[in-house]
User: Which sequence fits this backbone?
């Protein structure tokens, strides 16, 4: 059993930055499995009889499996992987506070998610959107979040740097908010009755996006932009205004998901008003992004991670203009329940925040392993497959959503317009194939880098330049 | 280890803001928003087939594609829901996306056998549906699921005819303050608007034989048919305002004022009724010999010989009409 103990030693090591590397490696695996299941679910919307008689692979179970794998598996683990590299660098510390704890969290997170997804596919589910992990899994995920939080906070507090760069604010903020949001949103901790359950569920359903994915993603973006462009961030003040306004306006917006349901009107009013106020933090991020990129756009010609960041910035512009727009009562009246919103969700999580993490992974993996990225060409393929994939997906889902909304608005029987959805659902499946192929390139590239490429000492952390590792 | 004191204060503020928001938007509603159970609220007794069916509904992820709240702006999806309807709906299954139709009023809409067929192979009863086949559910689970579906909205009072949606019933309550739809003044006011806007399709006498009707695939309505005499005022107002989906009937609210549409409705209501026979209840169904309580057996015997199994499938309504109420309904025949 010596291989077992040596494997354990490698996985649960206290080598600096090993937790970051391991988190990223598991995130990439979850990404590929998650998008594959998503594509399979997309195929079922074109060929509903593709798989019959297998409970585990019916649409109603594939969808939550896909969402949990990409949200809790890929994006969240990817974020933690990035935090565990960026936080110690910004706090001037060699590695995080406790690498061993970080690695144990990584192993536990993987096990919990694996068993949780298997449980969901076998029908053990909480059956509330984004909160499908049930019972014991809720407690385990919370434990993982708290141990991650402790590690993050202790890393910053024990670092030599006493002045916090803005990314630290965003990252520590998300590590504080997310566990609280998770507690409110899961019935293992807080269980309301009737419509109040829906209110709590959407408090969680929106704030996992707002207080975790947005805050964390923007934090990573603020770290990567100056590194990639070798220029200081345009305005530190703006970024701090963004942080505080996110803290004030993002959290109360959840009820805009059930705007026409019979929940209290004052709650809906708060949700709509704060949704529109979200334009403030969004515009601070966008101003900072576009002003920092000023006169640096040419770098994207051969800096692949920067390309991902630019694509993410533009997708953030689209998704965050869409968000407040469709949260207003008049627009929501028309668009709610339609595939438009599904497109919006992919625009936020795939086109924006996943792209930020892609860029971060291409940047961080060489730093934490000391190896050059295996293939620049594969990274280019990854970029174009994923970019074209999401553009096609969002466009067809938006069109399909407008058809659905028109069907309801002009009271045309669903039996008539349901046929109109077929071509769009088919193209959506094709876009899923594109995205899946892109992610397979990505996984191959990253694994080949970590386990195959030659060591390049220049790439190690704290080396002066951030450019040209891909 | 000691952070800047300013950072500490800022951290406390972040925590305070967030705890305030949690309190206001998650805890406070739970404390103050306690609607009284409405008549439509269905109480799911733990362990009952309906409660188990609801669990299966959640387990199979039905709510990812089916919402369970009919909204004010929805048309022909049944009655709009109220807060009191959801008192016993824990955990919620409101849904966020409608790949399939809204289910808040599905209970009682179809027979059990339809639901069984639909869940085993949806394409059989709904061509073009992309619902997954739930053939993997056991017979027992399917029974529970169907039992649950039949309770959803079943206690909500459903309109039994073409009825205006809630939005137009509310609007009509305001408009009728201004326009007395049964007055001849309103009908005369409507006559002019009708002749200008409606007569080219519906005809001067409202028989659906205006000159434009010649070229139409879907012929305009003939208002003298008894069917249209069952419309209530709000329904007329709604039909004039929103038109008829699937036909060339326009949405007049885009060009006419509320009062004008009410005048048109007032005029159309004065059109005479044709002598066409109409059946509005089973009691009026005219079947020769139906008064004989052995009618179905006699008919079945004529067709298939004695002792055939079909006689058990005679509609009970017909039996009852023949057997019990001969005296009251005799006149109708």
Assistant:
């Amino acid at each position: 059993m010596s291989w077992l103990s040596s494997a354990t030693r490698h996985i649960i090591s206290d080598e600096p930055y090993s937790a970051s590397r391991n988190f990223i490696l598991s995130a990439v695996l979850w990404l590929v499995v998650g998008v594959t299941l998503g594509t399979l679910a997309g195929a079922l919307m074109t060929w509903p009889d593709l798989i019959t008689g297998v409970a585990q692979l019916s649409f109603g179970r594939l969808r939550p499996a896909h969402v949990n794998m990409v949200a809790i598996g890929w994006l969240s683990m990817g974020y933690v992987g990035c935090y565990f590299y960026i936080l110690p660098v910004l706090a001037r510390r060699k590695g995080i506070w406790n690498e061993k704890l970080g690695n144990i969290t990584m192993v536990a997170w993987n096990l919990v998610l694996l068993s949780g997804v298997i449980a969901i596919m076998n029908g053990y589910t909480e059956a509330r959107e984004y909160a499908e992990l049930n019972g014991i899994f809720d407690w385990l995920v919370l434990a993982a979040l708290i141990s991650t939080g402790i590690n993050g906070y202790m890393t910053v507090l024990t670092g030599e740097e006493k002045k916090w760069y803005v990314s630290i604010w965003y990252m520590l903020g998300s590590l504080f908010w997310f566990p609280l949001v998770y507690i409110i949103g899961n019935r293992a901790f807080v269980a309301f009755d009737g419509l109040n359950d829906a209110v709590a569920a959407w408090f969680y359903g929106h704030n996992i996006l707002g207080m975790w994915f947005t805050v964390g993603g923007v934090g990573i973006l603020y770290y990567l932009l100056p590194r990639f462009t070798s220029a200081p961030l345009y305005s530190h003040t703006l970024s701090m205004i963004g942080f505080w306004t996110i803290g004030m306006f993002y959290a109360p917006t959840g009820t805009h998901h059930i705007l026409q349901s019979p929940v209290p009107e004052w709650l809906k009013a708060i949700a709509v008003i704060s949704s529109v106020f979200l334009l403030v933090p969004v515009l601070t991020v966008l101003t900072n992004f576009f002003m920092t990129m000023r006169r640096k756009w040419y770098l994207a010609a051969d800096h692949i991670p920067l390309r991902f960041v630019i694509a993410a910035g533009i997708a953030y512009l689209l998704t965050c203009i869409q968000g407040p727009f469709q949260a207003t009562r008049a627009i929501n009246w028309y668009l709610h329940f339609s595939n438009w919103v599904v497109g919006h969700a992919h625009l936020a999580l795939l086109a924006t925040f996943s792209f930020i993490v892609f860029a971060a992974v291409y940047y961080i993996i060489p730093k934490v392993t000391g190896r050059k990225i295996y293939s620049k060409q594969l990274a280019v393929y990854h970029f174009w497959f994923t970019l074209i994939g999401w553009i096609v997906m969002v466009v067809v889902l938006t069109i399909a959503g407008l058809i659905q909304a028109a069907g309801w608005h002009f009271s045309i029987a669903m039996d008539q317009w349901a046929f109109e959805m077929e071509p769009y659902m088919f193209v959506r499946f094709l876009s899923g194939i594109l995205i899946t192929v892109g992610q397979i390139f990505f996984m191959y590239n990253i694994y080949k880098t970590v386990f195959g490429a030659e060591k390049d000492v220049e790439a190690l952390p704290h080396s002066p330049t951030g450019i040209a590792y891909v | 280890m000691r952070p800047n004191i300013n950072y500490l204060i800022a951290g406390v503020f972040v925590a305070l803001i967030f705890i305030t928001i949690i309190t206001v938007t998650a805890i406070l509603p739970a404390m103050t928003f306690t609607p009284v159970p409405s008549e439509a609220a269905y109480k799911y007794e733990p362990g009952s087939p309906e409660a188990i069916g609801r669990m299966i509904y959640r387990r199979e992820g039905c709510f990812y594609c089916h919402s369970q709240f009919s909204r004010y702006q929805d048309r022909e999806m049944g009655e709009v829901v109220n807060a009191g309807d959801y008192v016993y709906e824990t955990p919620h299954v409101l849904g966020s996306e409608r790949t399939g139709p809204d289910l808040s009023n599905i209970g009682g809409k179809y027979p059990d056998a339809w639901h069984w067929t639909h869940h085993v192979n949806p394409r059989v009863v709904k061509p073009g549906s992309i619902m997954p086949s739930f053939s993997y559910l056991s017979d027992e689970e399917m029974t529970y699921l169907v039992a649950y579906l039949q309770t959803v909205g079943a206690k909500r009072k459903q309109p039994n005819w073409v009825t205006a949606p809630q939005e137009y019933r509310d609007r009509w309550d305001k408009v009728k303050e201004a326009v007395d739809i049964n007055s001849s003044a309103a009908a005369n006011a409507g006559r002019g608007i009708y002749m200008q806007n409606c007569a080219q399709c519906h005809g001067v006498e409202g028989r659906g034989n205006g000159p434009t009707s010649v070229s139409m695939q879907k012929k305009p309505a003939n208002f003298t048919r008894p069917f249209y005499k069952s419309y209530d005022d709000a329904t007329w107002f709604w039909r004039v305002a929103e038109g008829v989906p699937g036909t060339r009937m326009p949405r007049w609210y885009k060009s006419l004022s509320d009062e004008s549409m009410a005048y048109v409705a007032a005029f159309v209501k004065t059109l005479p009724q044709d002598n066409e026979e109409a059946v509005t209840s089973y009691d009026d169904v005219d079947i020769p010999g139906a008064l004989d309580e052995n009618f179905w057996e006699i008919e079945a015997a004529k067709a298939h010989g004695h002792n055939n199994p079909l006689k058990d499938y005679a509609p009970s309504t017909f039996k009852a009409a023949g057997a019990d109420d001969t005296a009251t309904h005799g006149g109708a025949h």
Chain B has a mean pLDDT of 84. DSSP finds 13 helices and no strands in chain B. Chain B touches chain A through 71 residues (CB under 8 Å).
